[in-house]
Amino acid sequence: MTVVKHAIAEHDFVELLDRVGRWDAGIKGTVVRDYGGAKLVEIADERGASLDFVQVLESGLKLISKYS
Fold first, then answer.
1. Chain segment 6-42, per-residue pLDDT in tens
2. pLDDT of 4 above 70
3. pLDDT at 68
4. How many angstroms separate the CA atoms of 29 and 63, rounded?
5. Buried/exposed code over 28-66 (b: 16+ C-beta within 10 A; e: otherwise)
6. What is the spatial distance between Cα 68 and Cα 50, in angstroms, rounded to a whole number?
7. pLDDT of residue 41
8. To which H or E segment does residue 64 belong?
9. Distance from C-alpha of 30 to C-alpha of 44, rounded to nearest angstrom
10. Which CATH architecture group holds 13-65?
11. Cβ atoms 31, 37 nearer than 8 A
């Protein structure tokens, strides 16, 4: 059985696996910049207003959905 790991890229929807700054694990956001092993994630409220931007190693993120 082959396991395919999808790389996290810009515009993907992700979840934080660990606390980052003031944001607890489980917070969801959108990748807005891809720095290779690290991603810049936008945290927004339910209306889409930006609350914060955090840089996170890809290993600290869980892919929720790919941008298509």
1. 699 999 999 999 999 999 999 999 999 999 899 999 9
2. no
3. 77
4. 10
5. ebbbeebeeeebbbebeeeeeeeeeebebebebbebeee
6. 22
7. 98
8. strand 61-65
9. 8
10. Roll (2.30)
11. no
